[in-house]
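Look over this today:
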Amino acid sequence: MYGHDYDDYDYDEYGGHTGDPMLDRELDRQHSSNDYVPEAIKRFLTYFRDMINEGNTYEVANLYENSWPKLSEDYFKSSPWPDADEIAAYVQDDNLFLILYKELYFRHIYARISGGPKIEQRFDSYYNYCSLFNCILTSGTPVTLDLPNQWLWEIIDEFIYQFQSFVQFRAKVGKKTSEELDILRSNPRTWDVLQVLNVLHSMVDKSNINKQLEMYSAGKDPDLVAGEFGRHPLYKMMGYFSLVGLLRLHSLLGDFHQAIKVLENVELNKKSLYSRVPGCQISMYYYVGFAYMMMRRYADAIRTFSSILLYIQRTRGLFQMKTYQNDQINKQTDQMYTLLAMCLVLHPQRIDESLHSMLKEKKLQGKNGQDATRRSCRIRSFVYICLSEIFIPGSTHH
């Protein structure tokens, strides 16, 4: 184990009073000043920044997957983390770290703050993503940054989620103030779909990931075609995750043929370096299966959903302890069982017995023939409505 165990810190060390009224007033005055960031948070951020700069990916993964969620729960359960300006001095104004910090800061606001982000925060988060991607993509040499694959995947996943959230937010014109409408009219390119597509395609091109996947499928060394950037783990994995991001984005846009096409070099059922993040793997199968269903390739959709649902059954223990990932996986899993049932109504066929049993447990089939017939009719009607209206599954990110 590297470094400190932040679970051992006394997180309440600044929460109590001394019993001395004069001293308590002085402490309250100090806490109300600008320097109110708890000491444990200062230590954590300083250490977090040091581990990133040292390239200690193992410890960064521990801080990202365990310490950050615990500190969020203990200190900021329903409130934002401190602004980047408030913590800059503790991390030596490290620009790259502050960009990464703000990525987590805004993600926390989207997930935890009641009412969601304000319009200014939506814009600020977009500009922060622009800063991050510009840093990675415009550098003359590969950026010296080693982040765990889980974090890299969730950067891409969150980027698309926030785009989707902004589109839904912007569409609710009736609930906007005149000031908000003016801001939206004045910034038509913020969270623009072409900008989002450009980022993902640029990441794919920079990494040469499609050429690498072709070589990998042929049993050859991907490094032969990776180039200077593609050989770096940051660019290689960001390129791969961007392919999955394009799959999701094209599905949301209703272009299901293109959604499938972007993965033409990915072998879904082959284990590899690129399939070690369960959340990414599950999301990929989810949108591939949905795209097949919307293209009325029901047999392919059933095969895809069955494959990933069996994988989830076998490997549940791998991500059972990571609740922030497990919640999303559970939501997508439930949706895939529903989509599988819909496909089976339209294209009846035999499926694995364990999946058949799970469908019964989830009450997607009736307990007797009469109930099953009625339920089948309801599902069939719902399917036809979905197909006629180009149904897009809701975001399962939070």
Q: What stands out?
A: The chain has a mean pLDDT of 83.
